[in-house]
Hints:
By secondary structure, this protein is an alpha/beta fold. It has a single domain (5-202), classed as Roll (2,3-Dihydroxybiphenyl 1,2-Dioxygenase, domain 1), CATH 3.10.180.10. Helix content is 21%, strand content 38%.
Amino acid sequence: xxxxxxTLDVDDPAAAKRFYVKAFDLESQIRVRASEAPxxxxxxxxxxxxVSQPSTVDSLIGSALDEGATTLKPVSKSFWGYGGVVRxxxxxxxxxxxxxxxxTGPATRRIDQLVLLLGVEDVAASKRFYVDQGLVVGKSxxxxxxxxxxxxSAVKLALYRRRALAKDAGVAPDGTGSHRLTIDGSxxxxxxxxxxxxxxxxxxx
Length: 205
């Protein structure tokens, strides 16, 4: 089962689409649609851009801020590498990170992987649910984190404990209302934490 894209519910689709193209050079992987679905606090997910070196992180975070994003975690070095977290104008949380601590080549804006991290209450139960749907586990760290194989997917899916994901994003874990996110993949279903999937083949530009 593959993920072709994710659809974000936004107040202003034209502005959101413009943001993702100018900030992150994303077009096909991120779709937007108008919605006034109520939501408050943490929406239960983050989107991550994995890149090869710090200069790419700086470029993408810088362009996101220039286009109206707000900082949740300033770009910095850590034990794991280098990265930062921003909130897009539509409310979605984005992390841009690399495992490298030094540049190894000319600066680029190349994105190696787009990852959708779902914050779930019970990682083991959600893992079983997704395995039953046909996903293949790539990495698994007990009841903390699961990453699914994504060789043919435009978007990689991972599961993280909700409170841990919120902490990683720099926000409080509490939230109510709509996730304002739909996963565009190979099936139509809703997972144990309320994240909805729809067939990618049914989408139009």
